[in-house]
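Hi C.,

You asked whether I'd gotten around to modeling the 84-residue construct. I have! Everything is below, sequence then structure, no commentary in between.
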Amino acid sequence: MVKDLMTTHSYPLAGTLRVGEKKGNRPTSLNYFTVHEDSHTSNDVIETFKRKFGENPKEVIIKFLSDEPFKVDYLRYAKSRTSM
């Protein structure tokens, strides 16, 4: 369970990275990351990404906000309360 759940922050989604693109109706795999403008990704984010990583980056730096980002805890609900 996440400690201090009430004090954790929810960070907004700034953009979407992709490793492929659509050509017509078919998806095509790429060997580099791309960023396109969509509902989550503004043009400013795209320009900043390209300045930092270049036009066709093969590596990007990812920082997780938790030491265990893939750890999942399951909670059991009993009469409106949780128990481990």
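If it helps when you're writing up: The chain is about 15% helix and 25% strand.

Thanks,
B.
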